[in-house]
Amino acid sequence: MKDRADVMVLGGGPAGCTAALYAARAALDTLMVEKLAPGGQMATTDHVDNYPGFPDGIDGFSLGERMEQQASRFGAKTVYGEIVRVSLDAPVKEIELADGAVHRAGAVIVAPGASPRELGLPRERELRGRGVSYCATCDGAFYRGKDVCVIGGGDTAAVDALFLSRICRQVVLIHRRDTMRAAKAYQLRLQQQENVEFCWDSVAEEILTQQDAAGKVSGVRIRNLKTGETREIACDGLFIAAGNVPNTALFRGVLEMDDAGYLLAGEDTVTSLPGVFAAGDARKKPLRQILTAASDGAVAATMAEEYLLQE
Questions:
Q1: I want to staple 97 with a disulfide (CB 3.0 to 4.6 A). Which of 39, 71, 101, 111 is the partner?
Q2: Catalytic residues
Q3: Rounded to whole angstroms, how far apart are CA atoms 250 and 248?
Q4: What share of the chain is helix, strand, coil (3-state, %, to 5)?
Q5: pLDDT tens string 239-293
């Protein structure tokens, strides 16, 4: 690497790895900066069944490693560390890591990803991949013909419940209010599904597990907020649809974003600052999947290349 890269990719998830791959293949000096390990949120997924090219599926951690290795094969460099400062409004963009290292580039692709909003239940994180999921389209197929619960009341919860109702035996939707916030069209379709049951005015208090070595989810204990009554619902899977939190706190006041913190950039990934592009789950968009994140990465790298050619 020279004293500054051509392109710097902030984030090593599917969007970041794909951006690094495309930028490196375009003969651009490319530096990818990742906090922990390649893959991002994908790396926490036990089994990925909906990414093309893997007919038997693949675990998310392995897929992330393969993506990083592919980008590396074409010359992309990876640095691991937490970004503590960004300066993106000048022609030469600059970031600083927690260890004091400073990296510069002519163009930056911001791909920090997003994290599922957790409920904060005991053992919730521990049981992720053992019955607790945050993505119905990612993991729903594992529960075909089984009983599941969905927690939430917005569009995400409604879409998840509808998707699961087509493949699961029974879907119980748990919501803390007496009506959903989801679009009326979604609510009407849910009400028409014979295998969907609603638990209104209720919150989850405890995730129940099997009393064996596997210790997988066996149900959930809920409490009615109006009556105080508790009940246990048996289920094989618990889908938490409380939304996502974009990992964009570092860019607040730097890049334009919506009230929820998602970066405002169109399908061309162009942000409010010249030479800065946004890709992946942190970008405001209608669908957040591994495939759409990778697609963003390819577009962002192409746009970054065009930007550098004009400089």
A1: 101
A2: 135, 138-139
A3: 5
A4: 25, 30, 45
A5: 999 888 999 999 999 999 999 999 999 999 999 999 999 999 999 998 888 999 9
